Structure formats: C-alpha cells, structure tokens
Amino acid sequence: MDGCAADTAERRAHRGSIRRSGQSGTIRLRLKFPAGYKVAAHIHPNDYNVTVLSGTMYLGMGDKFDAAQGQALKSGGFLHLPKGTHHYEWTTEDTVIELSGVGPVGMTYLNPADDPSKPN
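-> structure tokens emitted (120 positions)
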C-alpha cells in the first residue's frame, strides 16, 4: 500500500495498483486513507465501484463538502458510483478501500481551488 501519494497534502492517501492495464481498460486500486482525511467535492470520468476493506469511508453527494449530509460506508460495504456524480468523502479512522472500474482513472475537483495538486 505504500506507493504514490494521491495528493500533495501533509496527510496523504497512499495508492497501490493491484491491476491496471494501461490508460484504459480494467483498473483496480487499493487506497489507504489516514484518520481525518477529507476529499473535497469532485467527479470521475468513468463509473467506479468502491468496496471498503477496513475502517469507514463517509461519502456525501453534492457540490460542496458537508459532513452533516454524508453517510457511512463501513468495512465490507460496497457502492457503485456512476461517472459524473458530484461527491466528496472523508474518514475518521484509518481506512482502506478498493476502487475498481474501467480507466482511464481521473478526478476533477468541482472547485479548482480545492485541488491540492495545483499551486494556490
């Protein structure tokens, strides 16, 4: 699970590829999020399936982060997330998820200022 960082924030999510065939095709990623990790509202270019392997991932639907509107997806939980769905997520404990679908992998923040890979 120690691999590339999924963001540039001080508290990083770690990504490990289990299976990936180029830029397009079937992908399967395991992502490890530390407790207290937050991801601002964003979209993905393709449908994804999310399975929580350990911990709890909180997910909310909408254009802005609002923890009061999220729902817990506990260990063993599964969610199909259609492409273009406006959503955000956070953790309160160390959490590992498996993300699967068809590539290419991508993520676009709804508010560009929320993108930690971009300079302020």
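The radius of gyration is 13 Å.
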